[in-house]
Amino acid sequence: xxxxxxxxxxxALLAAASAWGAGAVxxxxxxxxxxxxxxxxxxxxxxxxxxxxxxxAPADADPAYWRPDVKAVGAMQKADLILLxxxxxxxxxAHVALPRLKRVDTxxxxxxxxxxxxxxxxxxxxxxxxxxxxxTAYTTxxxxxxxxxxxxxxxxxLIVRRPxxxxxxxxALKALQTDLAGLDGELKRIATAKxxxxxxxSHPVYQYLARRYGLNLKSVHWEPGEMPPEKEWTELGKTxxxxxxxxxxxxxxxxxxxxxxxxxxGVTSVVFDPCANRPESGDFLAVMKRNIENLKMALQR
Amino acid sequence: xxxxxxxxxxxLRHHRTRTLILVLCxxxxxxxxxxxxxxxxxxxxxxxxxAEATPLLVGAxxxxxxxxxxxxxxxxxxxxxxxxxxxDRITATxxxxxxxxxxxxxxxxxxxxxxxxxxxxFRGLAPAQGELPAxxxxxxxxxxxxxxxxxxxxxxxxxxxxNAFDLAGSYPLKLHVTGVLAKAHSPDDHxxxxxxxTAWVIEGLGHGHGETQAAPTRPDSPFGSPxxxxxxxxxxxxxxxxxxxxxxxxxxxxxxxxxxSAVIALPHDTRAATLLQGRYLDDHSxxxxxxxxxxxxxxxxxxxxxxxxxxGILLLVGTIALLLVALVFxxxxxxxxxxxxxxxxxxCARLTVLRLLFAEILxxxxxxxxxxxxxxxxxxxxxxxxxxxxxxx
Lengths: 301, 393
Prior knowledge:
The complex is a heterodimer. In chain A, about 45% of the residues lie in helices and about 15% in strands. Chain A is an alpha/beta fold. By secondary structure, chain B is of the alpha+beta class. Chain B folds into two domains: about 1-45 and about 300-390, no CATH class; about 55-290, no CATH class. In chain B, helix 1 crosses helix 11 and helix 2 crosses helix 11.
């Protein structure tokens, strides 16, 4: 009898240990690194508490011009999933060693619809130094249909790594795509109501937004905190004669001096934040709703 | 019986030189075939284990043996290259994961292997010291390569120049050692690993430019102060990649067209493996898919056929050697005729003489067996090196 009891105890102990082990393995959260905030937001929405999502670019940097140092590369190498925007967004990718099988190019599905930028102006602002926007337009997520495809790519990658989460991830994807479709529908409605209204953009980052929603947009290379030189104002004046825009889209609120000077020229400053980095308040959806509301008010004027 | 062995031992000791020659002859004759089999078995284990762990291999159509030996065992013969897009094509099927391998270059006589970091996970390779490569120009050494080169994390080594007479060729690249891999008892131990993009920089497909500098102003110039920028600094080709000049490195052309030696395909299941193999049935295709295990088995069969031939030769040599030993014994018995007569005269039976001879033969056989075991034990650690040298070189 005591032998039987001991045997039962050992079997129960082994069963408990194996159950705990299996639980521990599946409960290990996925380590996800995203190259910009929209992808981090998608991953957070889709994976929920099953993943820890990291955005390695500093909070005050534009992830498109951020370069990872050796420490950041080491951290990315240890991740389970590296979400990339693609469309030449991660210019540092050719300089670092990252596992190919962990990388997910979320825009690969619509590569044939990338916008090429030719003869872009080399300019500088802030401490990041000189850069140009030549190459491929990269703010792919501002076309919310493309954003939905990127979210789907993230979902597929999550399911491959955690097949047991398929139902949860697909449910979350459906909800996320519904939200994105809502934004898409709203922007389409606004743009259709006032077709062809001339608009200016402070920076050439709205190419996909303009294409998807038929916005008549021309860009300069201005920064919200840097007063453009007089030459730039002259150029703007010339542009406005052929493209009489009453609204300029900004990535962030411009300094009052710039806004006032623009206002004197009859141009209102409107913030349409691409939200490439994590916002100080709210989330991607909230920022985009605010952007749409700003654009709507501007177009109604 | 104890006395027989005592007398036999004393006799053998008295005739030391003869005993030593006999023992060495017998010991080495026994050790030779056994050692050969040890090398063959080590080779079989070493090659089969590697091939078993590599489900499918895609490379340039041609010799599947060269492809397997080049991509799996980093042989010096080299493999014709294919394009990187082959790895993308395999990934796009959704049937397998693709691991590109570029094994064209050598650095200080060690194979320089360009891989993506997934290769280390796939082979179960982890750094025993330092870290895996992080940026262009970094490398990690296999355990034996680190020993041979005398390098560790923080060290540097220069890649070999492709062609000293190629004036347009790329400069050797100074590689930074970031880590040393733990011993894996595989060809990986002898390799220097770099990220595949670094291998392309060594190939000359990627290079860096210095920042252009403003040309010095010449107030006395009849053309006024120049506004052009000097281009010579822009044409500077770096031989060392550092975090400071990293951003000036770039590649020309489409990376999908860049060369690789082979793609290790890791199918998700048996069905996926079959479907993938079906993609390469076209004889006119530039690429082929092979199962390294099949190739290795075919290769080993040939090697074992040669081994069997060696066995036959060694058997003949052994027989001749044993006949010679028997001759030596019979001649020594004639020489010992007076000694044997003395034993009879002392009152010993003829059986005693036979016992004494048997004890001598047994002692010689035992000592020869010990010599054989010692030779085999000494050679055992080098068996896989010898196998690798004879099979792959």
